[in-house]
Design a protein that fits this description.
The complex is a heterodimer of chains A (109) and B (112). In chain A, strands 2, 4, 5, 9, 10 and 11 form a six-stranded mixed β-sheet that branches. Chain A has a five-stranded antiparallel β-sheet with strand order 1-3-8-7-6, with no helix packed on it. By secondary structure, chain A is mainly β. In chain A, 0% of the residues lie in helices and 59% in strands. Chain B has 112 residues and is an all-beta fold. Chain B is globular. Chain B starts with a strand and ends with a strand. In chain B, strands 2, 4, 5, 6, 9, 10 and 11 form a seven-stranded mixed β-sheet that branches. In chain B, strands 1-3-8-7 form a four-stranded antiparallel β-sheet, with no helix packed on it. Chain B contains no helices and eleven strands. Chain B has strands spanning 4-7, 10-13, 19-25, 31-38, 42-51, 54-57, 64-70, 73-78, 87-94, 102-103, 107-111. Classes of the chains: A mainly beta (109), B mainly beta (112).
Chain lengths: 109, 112
């Protein structure tokens, strides 16, 4: 059974700082996804990572995938308040897409 | 935005009654998914479909059934609703393996 673990589950940080969210998973997979969810809203796809070593960047967010370590990271550079949201990673396995519990990110001005 | 809708958007029902939630897409995507979201649990996969009449169980399928008789519609049925099924239910679609998932707006279900 696939397990997906994110940490931290809650992160409060100052604007302008850098930080990383980690996503570990238990079964071999080379397909990993990152999503963003604002309070009371649906989920929005951020990144699709489809191979070992894949790196995607958009704005202040950068995601990477290490399939050998079964680890993905979402790095936030020089955080701004608009990035406050909950971030989910999800792993594909046998047509299923299994989510982590999410990281609630709160960026303080 | 991907053409995906969910109905109803809100529902309050009593324990023991049957409930059906509908997910409708206009994208002709092959895959459709039902998730539930609860505080502290993230999103948990209930059932998914990989084609018309092709469905399979997810992580938390007990008490739920699904049907997909047409590409565009994926129905989730709670045969006899319980209070533990109070949740926000999200439908998602995607075109292919490795493809991006698009989520519907969600249905808030309360079972009293």
């Amino acid at each position: 059974e696939l397990k997906v673990e994110q940490n931290p589950l809650f992160l409060s940080m100052q604007e302008g700082k850098n930080y990383t969210i980690y996503c570990n998973y238990s079964t071999t997979s080379d397909r990993l996804y990152w999503y963003r969810q604002d309070p009371g809203k649906s989920l929005e796809s951020l990144f699709v990572l489809l191979s070992n070593g894949a790196v995607k960047q958009e704005g202040r967010l950068m995601a990477s995938l290490d399939t050998k370590a079964r680890l993905s990271t979402l790095h936030i550079t020089a955080a701004v308040h608009d990035l406050s949201a909950t971030y989910f990673c999800a792993v594909e396995w046998d047509d299923k897409i299994i989510f982590g519990k999410g990281t609630r990110l709160h960026i303080l001005p | 935005d991907a053409g995906i809708t969910q109905s109803p958007r809100h529902k309050v029902t009593e324990t023991g009654t049957p409930v059906t939630l509908r997910c409708h897409q206009t994208e002709n995507h092959r895959y459709m998914y039902w998730y539930r979201q609860d505080p502290g649990h993230g999103l948990r996969l209930i059932h998914y479909s990989y084609g018309v009449k092709d469905t399979d169980k997810g992580e938390v399928s007990d008490g739920y059934s699904v049907s997909r008789s047409k590409t565009e519609d994926f129905l989730l049925t709670l045969e006899s609703a319980t209070s533990s099924q109070t949740s926000v239910y999200f439908c998602a679609i995607r075109a292919s393996q490795g493809g991006k998932q698009y989520f519907g707006p969600g249905t808030r279900l309360t079972v009293t």
